[in-house]
Amino acid sequence: MTTAYTTLTGIGISSREGSVLTGLHRSTATRRSAAATAPTPPVPQEPAAEPVNKVTTSERRRILGVLNCDRFVDLAPLQIYAQLLDEGIYLCSVSTMYRVLRENRQVSDRRRLARHPARACPELVATAPRQVYSWDITKLAGPVKGQYFDAYVMIDIYSRYIVGVHVHSHESGVLAKELMEQIFAVHGVPHVVHADRGTSMTSKTVATLLADLEVTRSHSRPRVSNDNPYSESLFKTLKYGPGFPDRFRSLSEAREFMDIFTDGYNHEHRHTGIGLHTPADVHYGLAARKAAERRLVLDAARAAHPHRFGSTAAPKILDLPDTAWINKPAETTDTDQEHDSIAA
What letter would DSSP give residue 120? Predict the structure, then answer.
Protein backbone atom coordinates (compact mmCIF):
# COMPACT_ATOMS: atom_id res chain seq x y z
CA MET A 1 0.00 0.00 0.00
CA THR A 2 2.72 2.45 0.90
CA THR A 3 4.60 1.75 -2.34
CA ALA A 4 1.44 2.28 -4.43
CA TYR A 5 0.69 5.53 -2.56
CA THR A 6 4.23 6.78 -3.15
CA THR A 7 4.05 5.85 -6.84
CA LEU A 8 0.75 7.64 -7.36
CA THR A 9 1.86 10.85 -5.61
CA GLY A 10 5.11 10.68 -7.52
CA ILE A 11 3.34 10.90 -10.93
CA GLY A 12 1.34 13.97 -9.94
CA ILE A 13 -1.80 12.55 -8.26
CA SER A 14 -2.76 14.49 -5.17
CA SER A 15 -2.25 12.97 -1.76
CA ARG A 16 -5.99 13.04 -1.10
CA GLU A 17 -6.78 11.06 -4.28
CA GLY A 18 -3.90 8.67 -3.59
CA SER A 19 -5.32 8.00 -0.15
CA VAL A 20 -8.78 7.21 -1.61
CA LEU A 21 -7.37 4.91 -4.31
CA THR A 22 -5.08 2.95 -1.96
CA GLY A 23 -7.28 3.03 1.14
CA LEU A 24 -4.29 4.31 3.17
CA HIS A 25 -4.59 7.35 5.38
CA ARG A 26 -2.33 10.20 4.32
CA SER A 27 -0.63 10.64 7.72
CA THR A 28 0.14 6.93 7.87
CA ALA A 29 1.58 6.95 4.36
CA THR A 30 3.73 9.98 5.13
CA ARG A 31 5.06 8.41 8.34
CA ARG A 32 5.92 5.11 6.63
CA SER A 33 7.60 6.94 3.73
CA ALA A 34 9.75 8.97 6.10
CA ALA A 35 10.75 5.86 8.02
CA ALA A 36 11.74 4.13 4.81
CA THR A 37 14.02 6.98 3.73
CA ALA A 38 15.57 7.58 7.16
CA PRO A 39 19.32 6.90 7.27
CA THR A 40 20.34 3.70 8.94
CA PRO A 41 22.13 4.16 12.24
CA PRO A 42 25.89 3.74 12.00
CA VAL A 43 27.28 0.38 12.89
CA PRO A 44 29.35 0.61 16.06
CA GLN A 45 33.01 0.41 15.21
CA GLU A 46 35.27 -1.83 17.15
CA PRO A 47 38.07 -0.02 18.97
CA ALA A 48 41.15 0.35 16.83
CA ALA A 49 43.85 -2.14 17.49
CA GLU A 50 46.78 -0.83 19.44
CA PRO A 51 49.81 -0.16 17.19
CA VAL A 52 52.41 -2.85 17.45
CA ASN A 53 55.18 -0.24 17.57
CA LYS A 54 53.65 1.75 20.45
CA VAL A 55 56.17 2.79 23.08
CA THR A 56 55.49 1.01 26.33
CA THR A 57 55.00 2.73 29.67
CA SER A 58 58.42 1.67 30.92
CA GLU A 59 60.03 2.93 27.72
CA ARG A 60 58.27 6.29 28.14
CA ARG A 61 59.65 6.59 31.65
CA ARG A 62 63.14 5.83 30.34
CA ILE A 63 62.81 8.42 27.54
CA LEU A 64 61.62 11.07 29.99
CA GLY A 65 64.51 10.26 32.30
CA VAL A 66 67.03 10.74 29.49
CA LEU A 67 65.43 14.03 28.37
CA ASN A 68 65.50 15.38 31.92
CA CYS A 69 68.98 14.21 32.88
CA ASP A 70 71.59 16.83 33.78
CA ARG A 71 73.24 16.49 30.38
CA PHE A 72 70.14 17.05 28.23
CA VAL A 73 67.76 19.02 30.43
CA ASP A 74 68.59 22.33 28.71
CA LEU A 75 68.60 20.99 25.13
CA ALA A 76 65.86 20.74 22.54
CA PRO A 77 64.77 17.23 21.40
CA LEU A 78 66.43 17.73 18.01
CA GLN A 79 69.77 18.40 19.71
CA ILE A 80 69.38 15.37 21.97
CA TYR A 81 68.39 13.15 19.03
CA ALA A 82 71.44 14.20 16.99
CA GLN A 83 73.91 13.83 19.86
CA LEU A 84 72.68 10.34 20.70
CA LEU A 85 72.90 9.26 17.06
CA ASP A 86 76.49 10.53 16.93
CA GLU A 87 77.22 8.24 19.90
CA GLY A 88 75.60 5.26 18.17
CA ILE A 89 72.44 5.36 20.32
CA TYR A 90 68.86 5.44 19.02
CA LEU A 91 66.50 6.30 21.85
CA CYS A 92 63.33 7.10 19.88
CA SER A 93 62.10 9.43 17.17
CA VAL A 94 62.00 13.19 17.68
CA SER A 95 58.19 13.16 17.50
CA THR A 96 58.09 10.55 20.27
CA MET A 97 60.33 12.75 22.41
CA TYR A 98 57.89 15.63 21.97
CA ARG A 99 54.93 13.32 22.62
CA VAL A 100 56.43 12.14 25.92
CA LEU A 101 57.27 15.70 26.95
CA ARG A 102 53.76 16.85 26.03
CA GLU A 103 52.19 14.12 28.12
CA ASN A 104 54.21 15.38 31.09
CA ARG A 105 53.50 19.07 30.35
CA GLN A 106 57.13 19.85 29.62
CA VAL A 107 56.81 21.23 26.11
CA SER A 108 58.19 24.74 26.50
CA ASP A 109 61.34 26.72 25.80
CA ARG A 110 64.04 24.73 27.57
CA ARG A 111 66.49 27.63 27.53
CA ARG A 112 66.74 30.22 30.25
CA LEU A 113 64.46 33.14 29.49
CA ALA A 114 65.15 36.80 30.16
CA ARG A 115 63.26 38.08 33.17
CA HIS A 116 62.77 41.81 32.90
CA PRO A 117 62.21 43.48 36.26
CA ALA A 118 58.95 45.30 36.73
CA ARG A 119 59.33 49.03 36.14
CA ALA A 120 57.61 51.50 38.39
CA CYS A 121 54.94 53.52 36.62
CA PRO A 122 55.84 57.23 36.82
CA GLU A 123 53.09 59.25 38.51
CA LEU A 124 53.71 62.99 38.36
CA VAL A 125 51.41 65.88 39.20
CA ALA A 126 51.72 69.62 38.65
CA THR A 127 49.43 72.15 40.30
CA ALA A 128 51.07 75.25 38.80
CA PRO A 129 53.55 76.23 36.08
CA ARG A 130 57.29 75.58 36.48
CA GLN A 131 56.83 72.45 38.57
CA VAL A 132 57.14 69.60 36.05
CA TYR A 133 58.83 69.85 32.66
CA SER A 134 58.67 67.13 30.05
CA TRP A 135 61.07 66.93 27.13
CA ASP A 136 61.87 64.77 24.14
CA ILE A 137 63.68 64.80 20.81
CA THR A 138 61.91 64.41 17.47
CA LYS A 139 63.39 63.90 14.01
CA LEU A 140 62.91 66.46 11.25
CA ALA A 141 63.57 65.17 7.73
CA GLY A 142 66.52 66.90 6.05
CA PRO A 143 67.11 67.75 2.39
CA VAL A 144 68.00 64.19 1.34
CA LYS A 145 66.75 60.77 2.31
CA GLY A 146 68.42 59.50 5.47
CA GLN A 147 69.44 62.93 6.77
CA TYR A 148 67.59 64.28 9.80
CA PHE A 149 67.76 67.22 12.17
CA ASP A 150 67.06 66.73 15.86
CA ALA A 151 64.56 69.03 17.55
CA TYR A 152 65.00 69.19 21.34
CA VAL A 153 61.70 70.37 22.83
CA MET A 154 60.80 70.93 26.49
CA ILE A 155 57.24 71.68 27.65
CA ASP A 156 55.66 72.66 30.97
CA ILE A 157 52.98 70.00 31.56
CA TYR A 158 50.66 72.28 33.55
CA SER A 159 50.53 75.25 31.19
CA ARG A 160 51.47 73.36 27.97
CA TYR A 161 53.95 76.19 27.39
CA ILE A 162 56.98 75.27 25.27
CA VAL A 163 59.76 76.58 27.47
CA GLY A 164 62.56 75.82 25.04
CA VAL A 165 63.40 74.50 21.57
CA HIS A 166 66.81 73.77 20.06
CA VAL A 167 67.41 72.20 16.64
CA HIS A 168 70.74 70.52 15.96
CA SER A 169 72.28 68.27 13.33
CA HIS A 170 72.82 65.46 15.85
CA GLU A 171 71.83 64.22 19.29
CA SER A 172 74.00 64.34 22.38
CA GLY A 173 73.83 64.79 26.12
CA VAL A 174 75.96 67.93 25.96
CA LEU A 175 73.44 69.67 23.68
CA ALA A 176 70.60 68.55 25.98
CA LYS A 177 72.43 70.08 28.93
CA GLU A 178 72.81 73.39 27.06
CA LEU A 179 69.05 73.41 26.38
CA MET A 180 68.23 72.87 30.04
CA GLU A 181 70.66 75.47 31.30
CA GLN A 182 69.13 78.09 29.02
CA ILE A 183 65.56 77.14 30.01
CA PHE A 184 66.29 77.11 33.73
CA ALA A 185 67.92 80.52 33.50
CA VAL A 186 64.83 82.03 31.86
CA HIS A 187 61.89 80.13 33.39
CA GLY A 188 63.34 78.90 36.66
CA VAL A 189 64.39 75.48 37.91
CA PRO A 190 61.47 72.98 38.05
CA HIS A 191 60.86 70.33 40.67
CA VAL A 192 60.87 67.43 38.19
CA VAL A 193 62.14 66.85 34.64
CA HIS A 194 60.49 63.94 32.86
CA ALA A 195 61.72 62.23 29.68
CA ASP A 196 61.87 58.85 28.01
CA ARG A 197 64.93 56.59 28.07
CA GLY A 198 66.85 57.86 25.05
CA THR A 199 70.61 58.12 25.19
CA SER A 200 70.56 61.89 25.68
CA MET A 201 67.87 61.69 28.37
CA THR A 202 69.81 59.15 30.41
CA SER A 203 73.27 60.59 29.71
CA LYS A 204 75.66 61.28 32.56
CA THR A 205 75.90 64.94 31.49
CA VAL A 206 72.17 65.55 31.98
CA ALA A 207 72.05 63.44 35.15
CA THR A 208 74.87 65.44 36.73
CA LEU A 209 73.25 68.78 35.89
CA LEU A 210 69.90 67.79 37.39
CA ALA A 211 71.56 66.31 40.46
CA ASP A 212 73.55 69.49 41.06
CA LEU A 213 70.32 71.54 40.82
CA GLU A 214 68.45 69.05 43.04
CA VAL A 215 65.91 68.39 40.30
CA THR A 216 64.16 65.03 40.40
CA ARG A 217 64.71 62.93 37.27
CA SER A 218 61.77 60.92 35.97
CA HIS A 219 61.81 58.47 33.07
CA SER A 220 59.21 56.58 31.10
CA ARG A 221 59.05 52.82 31.32
CA PRO A 222 60.83 51.02 28.47
CA ARG A 223 58.71 50.85 25.31
CA VAL A 224 55.78 52.73 26.89
CA SER A 225 55.19 55.91 24.88
CA ASN A 226 52.12 56.80 26.96
CA ASP A 227 54.42 57.64 29.87
CA ASN A 228 55.47 60.82 28.05
CA PRO A 229 52.07 62.03 26.77
CA TYR A 230 52.63 65.78 26.73
CA SER A 231 55.67 65.62 24.47
CA GLU A 232 54.02 63.03 22.21
CA SER A 233 50.88 65.17 21.91
CA LEU A 234 53.00 68.22 21.11
CA PHE A 235 54.88 66.37 18.36
CA LYS A 236 51.62 65.19 16.81
CA THR A 237 50.34 68.77 16.72
CA LEU A 238 53.64 69.78 15.12
CA LYS A 239 53.84 67.13 12.43
CA TYR A 240 50.16 66.88 11.51
CA GLY A 241 49.74 70.62 11.07
CA PRO A 242 48.98 71.94 7.57
CA GLY A 243 52.23 73.90 7.35
CA PHE A 244 54.64 71.12 8.29
CA PRO A 245 56.89 70.40 5.27
CA ASP A 246 57.92 67.00 3.99
CA ARG A 247 61.58 68.00 4.21
CA PHE A 248 63.69 70.90 5.43
CA ARG A 249 66.27 72.20 2.98
CA SER A 250 68.75 73.22 5.66
CA LEU A 251 69.35 73.36 9.40
CA SER A 252 68.61 77.10 9.46
CA GLU A 253 65.25 76.52 7.76
CA ALA A 254 64.35 73.88 10.35
CA ARG A 255 65.28 76.25 13.18
CA GLU A 256 63.24 79.07 11.65
CA PHE A 257 60.20 76.83 11.26
CA MET A 258 60.41 75.63 14.87
CA ASP A 259 60.67 79.22 16.13
CA ILE A 260 57.51 80.19 14.20
CA PHE A 261 55.67 77.07 15.35
CA THR A 262 56.65 77.62 18.99
CA ASP A 263 55.44 81.22 18.95
CA GLY A 264 52.07 80.22 17.48
CA TYR A 265 51.71 77.24 19.78
CA ASN A 266 52.41 79.29 22.89
CA HIS A 267 50.51 82.48 22.09
CA GLU A 268 47.74 81.61 19.61
CA HIS A 269 46.74 77.97 19.88
CA ARG A 270 43.88 77.33 22.34
CA HIS A 271 44.20 74.01 24.16
CA THR A 272 41.22 71.95 25.24
CA GLY A 273 43.23 70.58 28.16
CA ILE A 274 43.65 74.03 29.74
CA GLY A 275 40.19 75.52 29.28
CA LEU A 276 40.77 76.72 25.70
CA HIS A 277 43.40 79.17 26.90
CA THR A 278 46.77 79.72 25.29
CA PRO A 279 49.78 78.22 27.09
CA ALA A 280 51.24 81.69 27.57
CA ASP A 281 48.11 82.88 29.40
CA VAL A 282 48.31 79.95 31.81
CA HIS A 283 52.08 80.05 32.18
CA TYR A 284 52.15 83.74 33.08
CA GLY A 285 48.98 83.79 35.20
CA LEU A 286 46.67 85.60 32.77
CA ALA A 287 44.13 82.79 32.38
CA ALA A 288 42.02 83.67 35.45
CA ARG A 289 41.37 87.23 34.23
CA LYS A 290 40.52 86.04 30.74
CA ALA A 291 38.19 83.38 32.15
CA ALA A 292 36.33 86.12 34.06
CA GLU A 293 36.05 88.18 30.87
CA ARG A 294 34.64 85.16 29.04
CA ARG A 295 32.01 84.74 31.75
CA LEU A 296 30.92 88.34 31.30
CA VAL A 297 30.52 87.78 27.56
CA LEU A 298 28.49 84.63 28.16
CA ASP A 299 26.32 86.34 30.81
CA ALA A 300 25.54 89.18 28.42
CA ALA A 301 24.63 86.74 25.66
CA ARG A 302 22.45 84.74 28.04
CA ALA A 303 20.63 87.89 29.18
CA ALA A 304 20.00 88.95 25.57
CA HIS A 305 18.91 85.52 24.34
CA PRO A 306 17.91 83.36 27.35
CA HIS A 307 16.02 80.91 25.17
CA ARG A 308 19.28 79.84 23.50
CA PHE A 309 20.87 78.64 26.72
CA GLY A 310 19.80 75.52 28.57
CA SER A 311 21.98 76.19 31.62
CA THR A 312 23.33 79.12 33.58
CA ALA A 313 26.70 77.42 34.00
CA ALA A 314 29.60 78.00 31.62
CA PRO A 315 30.64 75.05 29.41
CA LYS A 316 32.98 72.61 31.17
CA ILE A 317 35.38 72.87 28.27
CA LEU A 318 36.25 76.36 29.54
CA ASP A 319 37.26 75.13 33.00
CA LEU A 320 40.96 75.40 33.83
CA PRO A 321 42.09 72.18 35.59
CA ASP A 322 43.61 72.39 39.03
CA THR A 323 46.17 69.70 38.28
CA ALA A 324 47.99 68.11 35.37
CA TRP A 325 49.00 64.47 35.67
CA ILE A 326 51.28 61.96 34.05
CA ASN A 327 49.66 58.58 34.81
CA LYS A 328 46.96 59.67 37.20
CA PRO A 329 46.30 57.02 39.88
CA ALA A 330 43.35 54.71 39.25
CA GLU A 331 41.40 55.83 42.32
CA THR A 332 40.81 59.30 40.84
CA THR A 333 37.34 60.09 39.50
CA ASP A 334 36.26 60.15 35.88
CA THR A 335 35.44 63.85 36.18
CA ASP A 336 38.99 64.64 37.26
CA GLN A 337 40.36 62.59 34.38
CA GLU A 338 38.20 64.54 31.97
CA HIS A 339 39.53 67.82 33.31
CA ASP A 340 43.09 66.57 33.00
CA SER A 341 42.83 65.84 29.29
CA ILE A 342 46.12 66.47 27.55
CA ALA A 343 44.74 67.25 24.13
CA ALA A 344 46.88 69.84 22.42
Answer: P
